[in-house]
Design brief:
By secondary structure, the chain is an alpha/beta fold. The protein contains 6 helices and 11 strands. One of its GO terms (molecular function) is metal ion binding.
């Protein structure tokens, strides 16, 4: 049993290292690779980075969180503590936290303190299908956050965390824990975890061909 756990952990580490090495590709070659391979179009657009840096990108296995309207009376701090567990305890270094709040824009489901916690633990980025708050403070941390919108109202007053590390869907795109999230200024793509190597290998070929075309056009690479 111990040997099996060790092998699984090593496999997860290998995936995270491969993700880090592929960060330079961009969502364009990833999307083209999946289209060429005949895979479903697992793309979500209409998101925005907290930072205005157009070069910001992140990639890693998904750790999912789902929030919904509070269905029962409970102390707001209890749910806040549970949601914070994703960034402070449960998600692993190299992971991407993905929070589904069904696009609700009224409440900020993430703030500065959570960004600092996640950053300190090596979480590589966050996707929120909803709003965040503390926008300027998060921007100053340099932690990559992709979201729908912004709101100063904390989600703890109206929403509760109903699931963690379970399958979710954003805009009809299914996300299973461990699927690879590849995000940049154009949006994000979900790569099924059992297709990671196939997609990355094809995307790397596409990226190299595009670089060759740029070199031919500009003479010495990009302007």
């Amino acid at each position: 049993m111990g040997e099996m756990v060790q092998k699984n952990e090593q496999a997860c580490d290998d995936v995270r290292q491969r993700c880090s090495a592929m960060r330079h590709l961009g969502t364009g070659p990833i999307s083209d690779a999946m289209e060429q391979l005949g895979m479903p179009r697992q793309v979500v657009t209409g998101m925005t980075f907290v930072s205005n840096d157009p070069t910001m990108a992140f990639v890693g296995p998904a750790y999912t969180v789902r929030q919904a309207n509070k269905s029962r009376a409970e102390p707001h701090d209890r749910d806040l503590t549970r949601q914070r567990q994703a960034s402070s305890q449960l998600a692993q270094p190299g992971d991407v936290i993905v929070i589904d709040v069904a696009g609700r824009a009224e409440y900020g489901s993430w703030g500065e303190n959570q960004a600092l916690m996640a950053q300190s633990r090596g979480i590589v980025g966050l996707v929120v299908h909803g709003s965040v708050r503390d926008r300027e403070w998060i921007r100053q941390t340099g932690f990559p956050v992709l979201c729908r919108s912004f709101s100063p109202v904390s989600s703890k007053w109206e929403l509760e965390t109903v699931a963690m590390n379970e399958p979710i869907a954003i805009d009809g795109v299914a996300i299973v824990p461990g699927d690879i999230i590849y995000a940049d200024a154009d949006g994000f793509i979900v790569i099924p975890q059992d297709q990671v190597d196939t997609v990355f290998d094809r995307a790397l070929e596409i990226h190299r061909m595009e670089e060759d075309k740029r070199n031919a056009l500009y003479g010495h690479g990009r302007p």
